[in-house]
């Protein structure tokens, strides 16, 4: 019994010793970990302080260099600002011109109908000079002008002279002018065409208005530009926009001229007799055809006689040569015939 109690006491003692050893080992491990952490933190702190010192030294060096560079660049900056201000002022003055004649602002889109009228006429007359002078006078009195004039000589056939005229007549006086030409000559062909360019005109008008707004925006950007690169870029865009505006305005001026002044293409022929106008009734048509045929026969005979008489300088020598040849041949033939008869008689 005593031995069992002693054995229990020894077992409990060993357990306490073992617990004490374990506790000591744990305390020793914790102490070593804190010491290593403290060393690591100290090294990191030293490295951080060293890096910060280097960074501060670099900053001081950069600041000193920046101060020097800033002093050197101050003059260039001032020059650039002066150039920007001067360029913006120049283009601002150009932008102010947009309210003038070249860039006249439009209050709204022009919706008036735009019609281009073109007339083609062919007429004949027995009084050529009088008709040409009368056409020119009528053109001037109507407020128009002669755009092209071409007068030729002998045209051949019944016609002796011809004239090709391109006339520009105010649109509101076109009908009166055409009526006057018809009364003064015998019109053989006539055609009139009308082209509506209202849609094209309105579209160009709208484009011009949009381009002018874009131009104003570019001038505003020019005034706010701070670098030479931006100034040159905006200047290039302004040039392109102004070119487009001028191109559209030029086309509008062409349309305005064609709408205001109608174009008349007139062919005039001088004849010895004006062609008969075909009537509507049977008798009038027969009479007109008969007169035309009789005239053609007379002209044919006249042309034949003119050609014959005009060719006498060439025909007379030929006729003389032919007569001489015939006479000689007849003499030769008669001589041979007589010789043959004599031989037969012998």
Automatic annotation (TrEMBL):
Pfam families membership: DUF4349
The DUF4349 domain, residue ranges: 113-325
Region (Disordered): 58-78
Keywords per UniProt: Membrane, Signal, Transmembrane, Transmembrane helix
Segments crossing the lipid bilayer: 304-329
Signal peptide: 1-36
InterPro entries: DUF4349
Compositionally biased tracts (Low complexity): 62-77
Protein name listed in UniProt: DUF4349 domain-containing protein
Lineage, uppermost ranks: Bacteria, Bacillati, Bacillota, Clostridia, Eubacteriales
């Amino acid at each position: 019994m005593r031995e069992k109690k002693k054995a229990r006491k020894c077992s409990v003692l060993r357990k306490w010793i073992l617990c004490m050893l374990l506790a000591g080992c744990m305390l020793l491990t914790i102490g070593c970990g804190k010491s290593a952490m403290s060393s690591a933190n100290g090294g990191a702190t030293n490295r951080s302080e060293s890096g910060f010192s280097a960074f501060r030294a670099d900053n001081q060096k950069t600041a000193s260099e920046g101060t020097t560079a800033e002093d050197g660049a101050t003059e260039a900056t001032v020059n650039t600002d002066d150039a920007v201000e001067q360029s913006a002022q120049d283009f601002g003055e150009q932008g102010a011109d947009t309210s003038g004649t070249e860039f006249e602002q439009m209050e709204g889109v022009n919706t008036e109908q735009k019609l281009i009228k073109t007339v083609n006429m062919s007429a004949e007359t027995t009084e050529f000079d009088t008709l040409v002078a009368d056409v020119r006078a009528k053109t001037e009195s109507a407020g128009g002008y002669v755009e092209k004039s071409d007068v030729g000589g002998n045209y051949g056939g019944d016609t002796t002279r011809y004239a090709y005229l391109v006339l520009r007549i105010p649109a509101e006086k076109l009908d009166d002018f055409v009526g006057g030409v018809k009364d003064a000559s015998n019109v053989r062909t006539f055609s009139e065409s009308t082209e509506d360019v209202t849609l094209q005109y309105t579209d160009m008008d709208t484009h011009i208005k949009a381009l002018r707004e874009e131009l104003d925006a570019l001038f505003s950007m020019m005034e706010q530009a701070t670098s030479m690169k931006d100034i040159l870029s905006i200047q290039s865009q302004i040039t392109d926009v102004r070119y487009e505006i001028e191109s559209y305005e030029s086309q509008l001026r062409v349309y305005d001229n064609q709408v205001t002044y109608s174009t008349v293409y007139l062919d005039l022929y001088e004849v010895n007799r004006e062609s008969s106008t075909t009537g509507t009734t049977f008798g009038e048509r027969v009479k007109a055809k008969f007169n035309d045929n009789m005239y053609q026969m007379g002209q044919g005979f006249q042309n034949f006689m003119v050609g014959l008489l005009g060719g006498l300088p060439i025909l007379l020598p030929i006729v003389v040569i032919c007569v001489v040849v015939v006479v000689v041949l007849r003499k030769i033939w008669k001589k041979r015939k007589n010789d043959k008869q004599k031989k037969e008689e012998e």
